[in-house]
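Dear colleague,

As promised, here are the two records you asked about, laid out in our usual form so they can be pasted straight into your sheet.

NAME FIELD: protein one
SEQUENCE, THEN STRUCTURE:
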Amino acid sequence: MPVDKVFEALASTARRKILAYLNQGELSAGEIAERFDFSKPALSGHLRILEEAGLITREKRGQFVFFKLVPERLANTIFAWAAEVCPVAGPLKRESRARARSKKLREEGQ
């Protein structure tokens, strides 16, 4: 999943607020809606964007839909982004690739 989708999802104040609410625990769509003055289609759109970015998941239970965070997705995305912009990222990636090639060659030689 592209990092761009995550940052696009985080660009909206409303979506960041939804994530903050979900940080306290899972909520039903109705419980989320109570906290905002959105129309149902607008709320559905925000939830869809967060879900497509992999930041939340949904689970249908009976007639209710519950949402919860996928915290490791956000943490991994932020780390990956920081590694990309970090000045030492290039040398570290080259080192990792070189080590992987060496390991593969050793394994093939055995």
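NAME FIELD: protein two
SEQUENCE, THEN STRUCTURE:
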Amino acid sequence: MHYPTLEDVVGNTPLVRLKRITAGRGNTLLAKLEGNNPAGSVKDRPALSMLNEAEARGDIAPGDTLIEATSGNTGIALAMAAAIKGYRMVLIMPESASSERKQAMAAYGAKLILASKEGGMEEARDLAEGMIARGEGKPLNQFANHDNPLAHYRTTGPEIWQQTQGQVTHFVSSMGTTGTIMGVSRFLKEQNPEVQIVGLQPADGASIAGIRRWPEAYLPSIFEAQRVDVTLDIGQLEAEEHMRRLAREEGILAGVSSGGSLAGALRIAEQVENATIVFVVCDRGDRYLSTGLFAPEV
């Protein structure tokens, strides 16, 4: 009998219809529950894709040290993938990341290096590049690695198409590395060019884990602007409010960027009729409990 390994159960996540948060106008809101992946986020997909494809090319081999800058979920997913496959993983992240994220990475055996809160992901990326230049490990570089969107072209996009029986009209996703939206957009547009791809970026002053507005010099090279039809700015309080709504009205405990995705989906729903709107619930909310964002309202 063939039993699956942990690697085999990444992906094929549920797509569920919201019941209490409704859009009206004949629209259907569908949440893609990526927190159901083994390490708890959508990033499990590209993490394994980047390691598997690099191994297939002969770029890396078990026992190597891998270095990656991450704001959290990719780091947890890479730490898991490295544990499965036998790599040493060095992760560089802003010190502002939640304690649950840091502890999860360490639990998988990864070494953590913290960049300053002020320097953020840009500083983390610069530190990673310096270590790689000094020969301290091999890069994966999710921001420029086409095996990142490839994972979503091969899995996430086809799953959404199959789960909606080709009825999806809008796909709403946060933009961080942009791997998810690039890969899904490519697949869905090949099936139906009319599908609208909606990307989310933070409004001015917002700091939402997983959603970024990159300075031009740091824009991920995997990003292709023509693959996104609509870009929405999501505010900090808006994302946090909708994150709490997901938990309290739908029983979906997720992170702040997922709240932003719901907010974006509802904005789209105000403008259309009889649409099937899919949005990405990027991760689980249990890795944000220490932040106090779910604290009871007073």
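A couple of things worth noting about protein two: The two ends are 55 Å apart (CA to CA). The longest helix spans residues 147-163.

Best,
R.
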